Amino acid sequence: MIEAILFACAEPLSLAQISARLPQGCDAAEALVHLRSRYSGRGVNLLRVGDHYALRTAPDLGWLMQSERVEMRKLSRAAIETLAIIAYHQPVTRAEIEEIRGVAVSRGTIDQLLELDWIRLGRRRMTPGRPVTFVVTEEFLDHFGLESARDLPGLKELREAGLLDSRPPPGQLHEPEDDGEAAHGQSELFED
Questions:
Q1: Which of 34, 127, 146, 163 has its CA 20 to 30 A from that of 83?
Q2: Which CATH number fits the domain that encloses residue 82?
Q3: Residue 106: phi, psi to the nearest 5?
Q4: What was the pLDDT predicted at 40?
């Protein structure tokens, strides 16, 4: 009966909990000693965990019970934006990421991308403070099926895929007409 009780319970049980489930007059302590010796050297052992008892897989066979599974986690919007900025502007510093996003970058966001092995630390900039830069990794390229960061889709491809708004950027109401005067006017702006 004790064997059945312990087998069915996921959590270790105390001697009092086991005794409460047995018929009147049963000596649970003696039965546990008998079961412990009976299971000795087998694939399942009767273990004492503090003041509780449980049936557990023998330590030398624990590897049989291990299972690996891929845990799918969605990236937060902040992580996606940060990853995109790093991919398109690499090598990029935290300050540059914050300037582009317009908000501070959480340490957790960077940590998550580092943990996924999608970004890594790049070289330090030779500017005051010598800030560290971030770059994407080969694991990032592999995950997204890219040969190199140059293969990232451009604005045109992103708009065609429906991932970006197809409206022109702010300040540009329509495409400039391709006439000689417009081209000439633009070149004059850049000559100064």
A1: 127
A2: 1.10.10.10
A3: -70, 145
A4: 86
